[in-house]
Amino acid sequence: MPMFGANPEQLAALGRQLQRQIDNIDAITNTVQSALGSTTWVGPARDQFEAEWSGSFRSALARLSQAFDAAGRDCTQRATELARVMG
User: Fold this and answer.
1) Whole-angstrom Cα distance, residue 85 to residue 52?
2) 12, exposed or middle or buried, with CB in 10 Å at 0-12, 13-18, 19+?
3) How many CB atoms are located within 10 Å of the residue 68 CB?
4) Where are the domains of the chain?
5) How far apart (Å, rounded) are the C-alpha atoms in residues 34 and 8?
6) Sign (positive/negative) of CA torsion 4, 8, 14, 18?
7) pLDDT tens string for the chain (87 positions)?
8) Between 11 and which of 19, 25, 32, 79 could a Cys-Cys bridge form, CB atoms 3.0 to 4.6 Å apart?
9) What is the pTM of this model?
10) How far apart are CA 36 and CA 30, in angstroms?
11) CA-to-CA distance for 81 and 75, rounded, in angstroms?
12) What residues contact 9, with CB distance under 8 A and at least 6 apart?
């Protein structure tokens, strides 16, 4: 019969690590947005990139950030509960 469980300290560390990645995702978003805004570039290629950036790319990064936040919080909460149960 398989055994289930986790090391609370390691699980909490994973949760913190996942949530720290949100800062990296925000940095990517801000860097690209700033670079795009300060780049002289006119034409259909820019229009296409800007449309994709404003649509699917930024949305994907926002979803990734939300997923990391939710997973990080879940790991931290589970670690707290495990530590409480284990004494």
Assistant:
1) 48
2) buried
3) 19
4) 8-35+43-86
5) 40
6) positive
7) 676 889 999 999 999 999 999 999 999 999 999 999 999 999 999 999 999 999 999 999 999 999 999 999 999 999 999 999 887
8) 79
9) 0.84
10) 10
11) 10
12) 79
